């Protein structure tokens, strides 16, 4: 098993539970991959705020296997406080007791950031989105933003309602997102089951939710976990594959590659996947930036809010998870952060702080004890139109090598749920040997296009 993010952890646990002899190599000093945390003085800091939805059933199943379900909170009923500098009071997007998609109808009808005409047009686009075939290449080739406009949605409706959910789940605004991926998010999360979008989050730092328990459960299950072990080459040998990691070599009859896409493409024997050379670079990545503030007093009385008419996007209370003693710790989560990823901290502070004070008046007089930024340049693959054609299937043409990762062909955007689903699929493929890719090829040489 190469790679100890959520995909690799899931696949490794499934295989170890099935009695396979599992060795997991992870290049970093911890498991958890893109979901990790670190210490900054007395603070526990996550690399970025992570949330999940009730519909993320595979992820929740992983939490159960890790024995950490008591370390997450899941809203009993979806409620999103929305703040705008143009409104004196926040508004709420709450689900009512009606079945989907009517569960949001009254919230949308009362949604003050939008003119009434836009609120009334929301329903017809929502119903049309429910009917989009999210598995079709034609849907994947289209821009979600263009589709929304064709379905009567104004720029205001896209920016203040659709992007409110979409930018955080897709890591792209509607204009830069594939319709198929957006349809997956909205169909599964909002348009089918009323409870599906109830929001959950960790009550502890991410390393206590994923990385540390994963190492413990894998070890208990008999797997060997080798941290700080970076795979550098994968070579065909008699009876399997030789994995080179620095000076050390391992031989395995089967390999799960659960590493980021560019690493996978580098390690895979040529011709292993039916994608054009350079597919990983073409798939690309999209950044997420989090601005963290420690304030001398409590300014937010909700676990989180979303902001419109503002660059803030989503703001979370991180006081408990970070272990702040007195005052409050907030994380401003900024998805699709191309315009911020290379901006110095001082400048980000100059942009974010006044905006926070505009939408959250209680913050106006608070003293900022600490302000820092976490950046993930390659947080997710870039979910642009046409992405589906660049996401490889689990099985490869290289006998015994399977792929896992949020970037594989799960149909989901790059999320924790997608990563876990890919790990489940990889374990299934290893445990139930079947045909590799349906096109004959030699893993050593032939390139399939
Ligand atoms: C800031 C941020 C916020 C996010 N917010 C959310 C959210 O709110 N909700 C949500 O569902 N998702 C969110 N995501 C996305 C989610 O974190 C990822 O989709 C998921 O964690 C990816 O898991 P993975 O196992 O596919 O990949 P990764 O986590 O990238 O795992 C790959 C692993 O392979 C290791 N590796 C790399 N090269 C080698 C090598 N040569 N040898 C051995 N090991 C190697 C890496 O160190 C890494 O541990 C967010 C991501 C970020 C960065």
From TrEMBL:
Domain Amine oxidase: 6-431
Gene Ontology molecular function terms on file: oxidoreductase activity
Residue ranges of coiled coil: none
InterPro entries reported in the protein's UniProt record: Amino_oxidase, FAD/NAD-bd_sf, SQase_HpnE, Zeta_carotene_desat/Oxidored
Regions that span the bilayer: none
NCBIfam families: HpnE
Protein name: Phytoene dehydrogenase
Organism: Amycolatopsis bartoniae
């Amino acid at each position: 098993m190469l790679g100890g993010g959520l995909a690799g952890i899931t696949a490794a646990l499934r295989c170890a539970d099935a009695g396979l002899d599992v060795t997991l190599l992870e290049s970093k000093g911890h498991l958890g991959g893109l979901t990790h945390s670190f210490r900054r003085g007395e603070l526990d800091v996550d690399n970025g705020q992570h949330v999940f939805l009730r519909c993320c059933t595979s992820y929740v199943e992983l939490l159960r296997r890790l024995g950490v379900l008591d370390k997450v909170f899941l809203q009993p009923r979806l409620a999103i406080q929305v703040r705008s500098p143009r409104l004196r009071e926040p508004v709420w997007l709450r689900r009512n007791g009606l079945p989907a998609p009517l569960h949001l109808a009254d919230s949308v009808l009362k949604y003050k950031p939008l003119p009434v005409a836009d609120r009334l047009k929301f329903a017809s686009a929502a119903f049309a989105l429910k009917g989009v075939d999210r598995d079709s290449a034609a849907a994947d080739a289209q821009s979600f933003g263009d589709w929304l406009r064709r379905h009567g949605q104004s720029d205001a409706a896209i920016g203040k309602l659709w992007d409110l959910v979409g930018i955080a789940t897709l890591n792209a605004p509607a204009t830069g997102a594939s319709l198929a991926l957006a349809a997956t998010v909205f169909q599964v999360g909002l348009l089918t089951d009323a409870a599906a979008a109830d929001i959950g989050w960790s009550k502890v730092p991410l390393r206590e939710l994923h990385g540390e328990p994963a190492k413990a459960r894998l070890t208990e299950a008999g797997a060997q976990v080798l941290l700080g072990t970076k795979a550098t080459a994968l070579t065909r040998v008699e009876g399997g594959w030789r994995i080179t990691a620095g000076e050390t070599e391992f031989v395995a009859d089967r390999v799960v590659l659960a590493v980021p896409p560019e690493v996978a493409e580098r390690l895979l024997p040529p011709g292993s996947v039916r994608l054009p050379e350079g597919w990983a670079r073409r798939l690309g990545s999209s950044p997420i930036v989090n601005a963290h503030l420690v304030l001398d007093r409590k300014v937010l009385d909700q676990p989180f809010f979303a902001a419109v008419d503002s660059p803030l996007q989503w703001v979370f209370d991180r006081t408990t998870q970070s272990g702040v003693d007195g005052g409050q710790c907030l994380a401003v989560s900024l998805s699709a952060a191309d315009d911020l990823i290379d901006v110095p901290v001082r400048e980000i502070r100059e942009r974010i702080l006044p905006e926070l004070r505009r939408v959250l008046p209680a913050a106006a007089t608070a003293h900022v004890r600490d302000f820092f930024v976490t950046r993930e340049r390659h947080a997710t693959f870039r979910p642009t139109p046409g992405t589906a054609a660049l996401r490889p299937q689990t099985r490869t043409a290289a006998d015994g090598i399977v792929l896992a990762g949020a970037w594989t062909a799960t149909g989901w955007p790059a999320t924790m749920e997608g990563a876990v689903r890919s790990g489940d699929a990889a374990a299934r493929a290893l445990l139930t040997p079947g045909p590799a890719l349906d096109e004959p090829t030699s893993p050593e040489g032939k390139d399939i296009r």
